[in-house]
Specification:
The chain has a domain at 23-131: Sandwich (Immunoglobulin-like). The protein is 28% helix and 18% strand. The protein has helices spanning 2-20, 39-44, 69-74, 159-176; strands at 24-26, 53-57, 64-67, 82-84, 88-92, 96-101, 113-118. The strands form two sheets. A four-stranded antiparallel beta sheet has the order 4-3-6-7. Helix 1 runs antiparallel to helix 4. GO terms for molecular function: electron transfer activity; metal ion binding. This is Phytocyanin domain-containing protein. Keywords: Glycoprotein, Metal-binding, Signal. Residues 23-120 form the Phytocyanin domain.
Length: 178
């Protein structure tokens, strides 16, 4: 009996783990964090949500500097928020915008910089280098704001609830076995 309970708990935890933690985005996909990659296009093809992870994979001639927007825009490395090195850096996203660049001489000016905008809600959005987050203000002259649009299909907005349902079904199945 105790073995069934342990098995049910393990099944619930394994099924729920991917739903609790966000998606992992390898920056630049197969090209990784490197010179010659169009990170603006890469970002525009991603959906970022709070809790997602950016994974920077890079060689010994690169690093990752978390910087302010103005430092990102000017490729300044004089006052980084955080610095990372070692070839594999994972950063968990919070809401708002975050900015990254490589501090190796001339790499940023050659395009090795990244701007990411993460949605505050469960509706993810991407933002590219030099792009602005979408505006939620009503059009001028409007007196009542319209309700927000529904989340896009496949946006992950049902991740937790569907994960709980799957975990519950697995736990029930294991409890009834044997």
């Amino acid at each position: 009996m105790a073995l069934r309970v342990v098995a049910a708990v393990v099944a619930v935890l394994l099924a729920a783990a991917p739903m609790v933690f966000g998606a992992n985005h390898v920056v630049g996909d197969s090209q990784q964090w490197n010179t010659g990659v169009d990170y603006t296009t890469w970002v525009s093809n991603q959906k970022f949500a709070v809790g997602d992870t950016l994974e920077f994979k890079y060689g010994p001639t690169h690093d990752v500097y978390e910087v302010s927007q103005s430092d990102h825009d000017s490729c300044s490395t004089n006052s980084p928020i955080k610095t990372h090195s070692g070839g594999d850096t994972s950063i968990t996203l919070s809401s708002g915008s975050s900015y990254y660049l490589c501090s190796t001489s001339n790499h940023c000016s050659l395009g090795m910089k990244l701007a990411v905008t993460t949605a505050a809600s469960s509706t993810p959005s991407g933002g590219g280098s030099g792009s602005s987050p979408p505006s939620n203000s009503p059009p001028s002259g409007s007196t009542t704001p319209s309700p927000p649009p529904p989340p896009p299909k496949g946006s992950g907005s049902g991740r937790v609830s569907s994960g709980v349902a799957v975990a519950g079904a697995l736990a029930l199945g294991l409890a009834l076995m044997g």
